[in-house]
Amino acid sequence: MQRHFLALNLAADARVFVPLCGKSRDIAWLLARGCRVVGIELSEIAVQQLFDEMAVVPVVSQIGPLTLYAADGVDIYVGDVFALTAKVLGQVDAVFDRAALVALPAELRSRYAAHLVAITDSATQLVVTFTYDQTQMSGPPFSISERMIKDLYAGSYDLHDLQTQDVPGGFKGKIPATETAWFLQAAS
Ligand SMILES: C[S@@+](CC[C@H](N)C(=O)[O-])C[C@H]1O[C@@H](n2cnc3c(N)ncnc32)[C@H](O)[C@@H]1O
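== thiopurine S-methyltransferase ==
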C-alpha cells in the first residue's frame, strides 16, 4: 500500500481519508509524510490505542452520532462509516482503503462503495483487494474479484491495477491468494 502511495500524486499536505481505520500504522506513516489524515472506526478502544501508540493526546468531542478524536493534522471519528456525512468529513484529496472494503460482507459492499464516492466527491482511491477461493475460507478478508471491484466502482472511476502479487504463503499458510493494489481515478 505504502509502496503505491506515489501513484496518488498528492500535494505534500494532502488530506487523506482512511475508512475503517482501526489502529492502522498507515496513519502514523501518512502523518510522517506531511499528510493530514481523517479516519473513521467503530471501535473506540482501537482509536484510543492508535493515539496511545502515537504518543499523542487527542481532544475528544461529540459531533452528532460520532465521537471525534482530534490532534494536530489528524481527525479520527468513532462510529459507523454510514453515519459520516460529506459535511462532517470535509474535503479530502484521496482515500486509503486497506483492509476496509475487504472487511465488509457482500451485502454491505455496494452501499459502502456508493457512500464513499458520495462523501468524498469521488476522491482518488488506493484500494487493496485479495482474490482467493472463497469456499476455502469464509473471510474476512473477503475475496474481491476484478469483476466485483469493477461492478462497485467503474461507474465513478477509471480503475488501474497497479500491482497483483501472490500473498506469501497464502491465507492460513495454505490457501493460495493474490493481492491487488488498485488505483481509482475519477472518470473523466
Ligand atoms: C480488518 S480491520 C482493518 C483496520 C485497518 N484498516 C488496518 O488496515 O489495520 C476492519 C475495521 O473496520 C472496522 N469497521 C467495521 N465495520 C465498520 C463500520 N460500519 N464503520 C466503521 N468501522 C467499521 C472494524 O472495527 C475494524 O477495526
